[in-house]
Design brief:
alpha/beta, 13 strands, globular
């Protein structure tokens, strides 16, 4: 039976519910994702063999015996090789020590396939932390998971790659929502990634690199963009590095499921140990870099194995690393001997930004998620009074050196490498409450932009959710129109039309997906309701024909119990219907807002006084006058004026308020008198 994406999502999340709370604080998402991928590999191995055998039988005009099929299975060509005794059927046959056998099987599969090295990092036989010698995940829980996954075939015959890839992305989003602040380590909201990708527009032949790739979302979205343009995902090459082994494993699985064939390297810091190197040990060059790095990393200069909370040790290591002459990067990205100062030890933001820049080809471009502090942190060189006076009574002045971050930002601007900066709403990232922005870097810029920077203030527009904020489809359209118009009103109508069509299709698809997802989630309740209502009708008719008192009373009790079950099922179905209605209302609102905002963008670009409240193309000379400070409110009018109120309306509102106050006082006095109190 072919599964829809929504049915598959419900099935996979059901597995997560079996394991949730049973891993003693361990990250249970890695267990579920690994097991799902292992089942997929095994099912697809069987499917490939079945298809090849069927084709041979057709060609030869005869049926093979089971023994002949077994020989062919052992010798046949497969995308991934699954060793004997490591297949799904072998796991079904295990009854004891299932965690140990499953771990051995997964690792044997990884060892047999170069592309799967490092994918299966979980240990299903990990001992419990109480020292009892028992496994952390009991045998019966592993068995329940195996049986749950066994209920559906995950090969291409039942689940096409795009469906499985979409379900995997959905599962990552669910795990991110569940993890809260910790999700920022492996997941960037898809709306932000989609924005970056559509600004930079991956092309066939691109080499696409994410230096802190987490679960691989930036790479997957880049491949999706290529498919949207009618190209194959493999028209580009994909590379990523991720320090966390578990997150890298999730990224590798994501890559395989989406057909990217990405090269993802794990276990080392991109800053201290960049995995991709070119000539003379320098970092390798890529045509497109996308990144959402860990904000303000205070240990960026230190390998993970040397990081410590001991202040004395940390200070000693810092002194050894930076020395009297300053930091010297062995890969030539910043510091002594380069065009850029080294970032300060306590803030690693510019270390990652400069790594992205150093990783670009001569025509490369990059999109980086940054804390907004990189736009304005660091003071320029200034003269300060010392508080002392010379012999003539004049105050003594000393010159204070410019801060390193100021000098880095100045060098980037003077080198004309910053193409655009886009501020984002607060709280759109998991676990990052600081204001963030998108920094667009380009090595080769159009001549007309060479001495300019586009600044976009996109912090006003978002959807407020319970735990965080979300960029709506219409908010993405605003950003993309500003980014691609680059201040040119003539480009706006075509851009609005282009993005309205694309985003409208996304809204339609999202609405359909969510409705089908809810229908799949509540399918058992809907079936139960239908069954119970049929049974109630039948039992009610039977009750009407009963005359004996005792039998009738017993039937009434059974009917009441059945009615209670029916009411519970009906309440669940009503809950589904309300969620579906809310999904449709939200989609209708988004469609309407895309149309409204499209017209609004046209009006904004027709009125310079209004445009300055949203976006500006600023000359480098103006930036220099502002001491290379890129804080967007210096250039864009971010002030939201109070709504205009007519004086007569204000007076009317005041009289109404005074009247309401007098009425409330009268009611209070009457209540007090009724209670025996008299006002004096």
């Amino acid at each position: 039976m072919r599964l829809t994406q929504q049915q598959l999502e419900a099935h996979l999340w059901g597995a997560a519910n079996i394991l949730r709370g049973k891993t003693a604080g361990q990250d249970y998402k890695n267990y579920i994702l690994s097991l799902m991928f292992y089942k997929r590999l095994c099912d697809q191995w069987e499917n490939e063999a079945d298809e090849a055998i069927a084709e041979l039988e057709r060609q030869q005009g005869r049926a093979f015996t089971e023994a002949q099929k077994a020989v062919f299975r052992a010798r046949g060509a497969h995308r991934f090789f699954i060793p004997e005794d490591c297949r799904w059927g072998d796991m079904l046959a295990v009854s004891v020590n299932l965690g140990e056998e499953l771990t051995l099987a997964m690792r044997a599969v990884a060892d047999a396939n170069e592309e799967l090295k490092g994918v299966f990092t979980v240990d299903w036989n990990q001992p419990a932390p109480d020292g009892s010698g028992r496994p952390l995940i009991p045998n019966e829980v592993v068995y329940a998971l195996i049986q749950h996954f066994n209920s559906h075939d995950l090969s291409n015959a039942s689940v096409p790659p795009d469906v499985l890839g979409g379900a995997y992305q959905y599962l990552l989003k669910k795990f991110a929502d569940d993890a809260g602040a910790k999700a920022g380590e492996f997941f960037t909201p898809p709306e932000v990634v989609d924005t970056l990708v559509h600004i930079l527009e991956p092309q066939p032949g691109d080499t696409i690199y994410d230096p802190t790739c987490g679960s691989g979302g930036m790479l997957v979205h880049s491949a999706d963009f290529l498919r949207e343009q009618g190209h194959r995902a493999t028209a580009a090459q994909y590379f990523g590095q991720e320090m966390n082994w578990s997150n890298a494993a999730i990224g590798k699985i994501n890559s395989v499921l989406h057909g990217l064939e990405a090269q993802i390297v794990a276990g080392a810091s991109t800053i201290t140990d960049p995995a991709f190197r070119g000539a003379a040990g320098k970092v390798r060059k890529f045509s497109l870099v996308l990144a959402n790095f860990p904000f303000s990393d205070e240990f960026w200069w230190l390998k993970p194995e040397f990081q410590t909370d001991d202040k004395k040790k940390k200070d000693k290591l810092k002194k050894e690393t930076f020395g009297k002459e300053g930091y010297k990067d062995p890969f030539g990205r910043f510091g002594r001997g380069t065009a850029f100062k080294a970032p300060p030890a306590g803030y690693g933001d510019y270390a990652f930004i400069l790594h992205c820049l150093a990783s670009l080809t001569d025509t490369g471009r990059a999109g980086v998620v940054c804390p907004q502090g990189v736009l304005f942190r660091g003071q320029p060189e200034v003269e300060e009074e010392t508080g002392e006076f010379d012999d003539e009574g004049n105050p003594k002045v000393k010159r204070r050196k410019a801060d390193d971050e100021h000098l880095i930002r100045r060098a980037l601007l003077e080198s004309r490498l910053i193409d655009a900066v886009i501020s984002l709403p607060l709280n759109v990232f998991y676990g990052a409450g600081v204001p963030a922005c998108l920094l667009i870097l380009k090595k080769q810029r159009p001549p007309e932009r060479h001495d300019q920077v586009l600044l976009v203030y996109a912090a006003r527009h978002y959807r407020e959710l319970s735990n965080q904020n979300e960029l709506r489809p219409q908010d993405l359209m605003r950003i993309l129109v500003h980014a691609h118009a680059y201040g040119d009103p003539a480009k706006v109508p075509d851009l609005v039309a282009q993005h309205s069509r694309r985003i409208g299709k996304q809204i339609d698809a999202r609405e359909t997906d969510e409705v089908e997802r809810l229908e799949a989630e509540y399918a058992d309740w809907a079936d139960t309701l239908t069954r119970l209502e049929t049974q109630l009708t039948k039992d009610s008719a039977a009750l009407a024909n009963l005359t004996a008192g005792a039998i009738r009373d017993k039937a009434k009790v059974g009917l009441a119990r059945l009615q209670a079950q029916r009411d519970r099922a009906a309440a669940k179905v009503a809950e589904r219907d309300e969620k579906i209605a809310e999904t449709r209302r939200r989609a209708d609102d988004d469609r309407r807002d895309v149309e409204v905002f499209g017209a609004e963008l046209g009006a904004i670009y027709g009125d310079p006084d209004e445009l300055i409240k949203h976006a500006r193309v600023v000359g480098i000379d103006e930036v220099e006058e502002n001491e290379f400070n890129l804080n967007i409110p210096r250039y864009v009018d971010t002030f939201d004026p109070e709504p205009r109120v007519e004086v007569k309306d204000a007076l009317t509102a005041l009289r109404d308020a005074e009247s309401a106050l007098k009425s409330a006082e009268g009611q209070l006095l009457a209540l007090l008198r009724g209670a025996g109190y008299e006002a004096k």
